[in-house]
Amino acid sequence: MKSFLFLIFLFLNISTISLCNVTLASRSFSFTDPGFEFNALNKVASSLRNIFESGTDRVISYQQDTLKESQILYNGREWKNFYYMVRGDQFLFSNLFLPGSVTIRGNIFLNVSLKYDIYKDEILIPNDPGGILQLNKEMVDSFSIFFQNKTYRFERLAEDKSKGYLNVIYKGKSALYIKYSKYIKKLAVDGAYDEFYKESQIYFVKDNIVYTIASKNDLINVLIEDKELIKNFIKKNKIKIIRNDPGSFIPVIGYFDSIRK
Fold first, then answer.
1. Is residue 106 part of a domain?
2. Rounded distance, CA 43 to CA 46, Å?
3. Cα–Cα distance measured from residue 129 to residue 113, given in angstroms and rounded to the nearest whole number
4. pLDDT tens track for 171-189
5. What contacts 54, CB < 8 A, 6 or more positions away?
6. Which domain holds residue 12?
7. Residues 165-197, buried b or exposed e (16+ Cβ, 10 A)?
8. Does residue 45 belong to any structural domain of this protein?
9. Half-sphere exposure (CA, 13 Å, Cβ side) for 28?
10. How many domains does the chain have?
11. Is residue 162 part of a domain?
12. At what angle do helices 227-236 and 250-259 cross, to 10 degrees?
């Protein structure tokens, strides 16, 4: 414990820590559950804890420029925007590159500039000179995007990779995810221009089975074996599950995990 606190102290007082083959840049981001704000110390502690618990994962700063690491990160194909005539854009959060991290076959790259194309479900990074590279999805384990003081972590389900990248909202014995996507509505603007529209879907994973949920009743029906306990918990704690707020499902799912054998 003392050693861990000492590492946190070092991280907060110098710009870079190098431990064996592990390099952390001063602008690194935590791998905590996305969608929630934590103070700086918690972010640092979580980042360090993940590194030491990861075992085989190797953390690489984006600034490190070795041939082997470049070949791992820059593995994909050139991205071109075929939808520049469509109003709006195909990206999550912003059409600008955002700070983040990406894990490729166990190698964690920090301080990477990312765009997430949710129309095609592809991760994009800058590629000199002035190009954009679409990462090889089959090699990407997970990635995180830092936006408006929150870290959003994405991964593909082992149970169903066809669903693409999902935002991790909760992960315990069971798990909760959001799938963000966009579609094109034809002639939506003045009857003359197509436009991008965003939509989302909530997925709940229990016992390696993926369920689509959208309401309190959907969740209770999935947790049917403990239905009465769940309903009593919701009533006693006056929990409100809001359709447009996936985070509101978390207290109930956390309670369900706590009573599972």
1. yes
2. 5
3. 15
4. 999 999 999 999 999 987 8
5. 108
6. 1-81+96-156
7. bbbbbbeeebbbbbbbbbeeeeebeeeeeeebe
8. yes
9. 33
10. 1
11. no
12. 130
